[in-house]
Amino acid sequence: MMEPYTVLIVDDVRTNLLVIGQCLKGLYNVREAISGAQCLKLARTEPQPDLILLDVVMPDLDGYQVCKALKADPMTAEIPVIFVTGKDSDDDEQHGLQLGAVDYITKPIRPAIVRARVSAHIQLKQQRDKLQHMALHDQLTGLYNRHFLVESARQRLARVVRHRTPLTVVLIDIDHFKKINDAHGHLTGDKVLTKVAKLLESNTRREDVVARLGGEEFVILLECPLDVAAQKMEQLRQQVERLEPEGLHVTASFGLVEASPYNADFSHLLVMADDGVYKAKAQGRNHVICCRAETSAIKPKTSPQE
Question: Which of 83, 107, 132 represents a domain boundary (last residue)?
Fold first, then answer.
């Protein structure tokens, strides 16, 4: 069952919090903040609110300042904000909308209006979330897609250059996948891909990125050094071998390469990881091979591939 959407109500007057909270009781998970500063803190706290009802007149930070801060922070910029205020001039409403608010509710509170406005914007957020999920995820496996992978790699490699954070790029190729499709059909092949994808996702951390690169190839971005990543991937290789999706014996070949401030081009790192996969297949497949910048030689894809 899907968790109810979370609405954060922000008002320095307790009575207003109670009145609005009663309007939404039983429909949403309601959270409360009594100041602009508390709103900014709760907006960044998991689970983040799906919608914020924000009073304008508050003593520390007013609603306009809070909205501006929310929209300036990438972590909170996409949370829709509805102003709730006694100010009802066109100029006030225009100013709020220009700051990024999606709607304006005037006091005194009318419960039916509050419920209708909140419902409308929650539905819009549902649609937006669905479209965003489709844009960033592979439709077959549910993993992140190539578009998300490239953007995420760009951000993480920037941290490698700037802060020397560890990052290992892993390329995984299911062995003999064409034979699975040819012998058992593409529907079975799709089920194999889906089950392998779930295994990869369930055996990585939240901060890691698991994506389907295309076909039977997957990429994992691991925030750890090469030696640690190699141990993790050896365990994962064994789990793939034991998986037997659709009753089939399936194995995979793994190529690993660690990024560095001097080797932070994602395209080049993928080529190096692919070189590791090539070597794993040349050695009989079902291997984990680590490639290093100073020793990796790019080889053309020939018969060992698949």
Answer: 132
